[in-house]
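Backbone-to-sequence.
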């Protein structure tokens, strides 16, 4: 890890390089969490194999890519990405995704104001994550939560 004068912290995480600002917003500058190898490229197209050190010098970021036996330079200049209308509909369903213990029972509750909760269903988790959709969605604000039952 390495910090700069603006309070940012740069982290080499094996296969990716991350930056955390003073407000604890974390972004991946380069690399992938799931793929390791050697490749130069912008953002998620870059590949590291054992990124273990970070150094900042005159506004440039240098990475010790140990298993590729290289010191690499990266730049971080994020560009706005256009979001097409089809992507705007993702995760806009009335329901809840439960990431929990398979074989356990969860109670799904809803609330219009997060103060008074009503039980909507009781489900046995057959997979994780488990997506439960509200069969009777109501327009307006509605909040959902899932509680693990004993």
């Amino acid at each position: 890890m390495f910090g700069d004068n603006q309070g940012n912290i740069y982290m080499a995480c094996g296969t990716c390089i991350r930056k955390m600002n003073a407000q604890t917003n974390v972004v991946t500058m380069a690399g992938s969490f799931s793929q390791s190898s050697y490749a130069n490229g912008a953002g998620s197209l870059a590949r590291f194999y054992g990124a273990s050190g970070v150094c900042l010098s005159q506004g440039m970021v240098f990475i010790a890519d140990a298993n590729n036996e290289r010191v690499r330079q990266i730049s971080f200049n994020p560009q706005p990405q256009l979001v097409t209308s089809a992507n705007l509909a993702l995760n806009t369903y009335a329901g809840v995704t439960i990431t929990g213990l398979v074989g356990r029972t969860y109670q799904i509750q809803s609330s219009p104001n997060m103060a008074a909760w009503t039980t909507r269903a009781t489900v046995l988790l057959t997979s994780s994550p488990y997506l439960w959709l509200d069969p009777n969605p109501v327009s307006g604000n509605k909040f959902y939560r899932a509680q693990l039952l004993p």
